[in-house]
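Q: What would this chain look like folded?
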Amino acid sequence: MNDLHLGEAAISRVTELERWPFISKELFPAITDEIAERAARDLGPRFVDAVTGELILSINCYVIRAAGRIIVVDSGNGNFKERPALLAHHRFDTPYLERLAAAGVRPEEVDVVVSTHLHPDHCGWNTRLEAGRWTPTFPNAVYLFGRSEFEWLEALFRSDPDDPVLADLAHTFADSVEPVVRAEQAVLVGEEHVVLDEGGVRVSLRGMPGHTGGHLAVDVYGGGRHALFSGDVIHHPLQFAVPELAQGGDQDPEQAARTRRALMEECAADRTILLPAHFPGPAAGRVIREGGRFSFDWLPD
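A: My prediction, written as structure tokens:
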């Protein structure tokens, strides 16, 4: 994705992992052969592997530069995190910090880090391993966590769950959230929160529940344009054709579907630029509505 400009705001994509394949039934348990075949035909090999039929995701982080501030939206999965039950997240070793540097950002320059939610691939680079300890990757940043999201994950951590998947989620709190709290860099916010409103640019948070109960989206307004970071409201472009299709990690699939459809309707009506967390490049685009159907029009890379 080329840098996107909204007035005085500039948005860059930093990709931790460009190709992140999933067996279609593991990503979307209710997917049918018809949906999968149509996706392969309509979307092509960037999004559906032509040989295996696997669905291709990416892990995208975004950097907003505005009013002299640097804001990171979702930090990615992180390196060396132990996720033995969630193998798609287990023990990454990627050059994420080098890619951040290539985008012109050093960790100490970041002012704000926003986690749309606290699943492992959205908050993992909140911390990095230094001398055997998890420490905040962005030492001078304020980390914004949705209050209900934080309280849910903290309670899960305190419960010491036996279920392996829940244990991995709980471990996410231990290695990617609690060290930030310990460093006194965490701020808990409600579902409506203004991050920045200065120099003709407004960055704000709002609740978009379903994938998790406290899931947030990030709005950026500037120069008469609007961009929206959707986190995990939508995972793969095939969901534009079937907004009701639940992802396996949706905590409340029915609410997630309502939120997803509302997002699509809003973006189509307002020509909002949508910045999904998991679309392979160029990632950003606009939602098109034709009658009762939606599609996605990617911005030039």
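The helical segments are 24-27, 33-43, 96-102, 120-123, 147-159, 164-182, 253-270.
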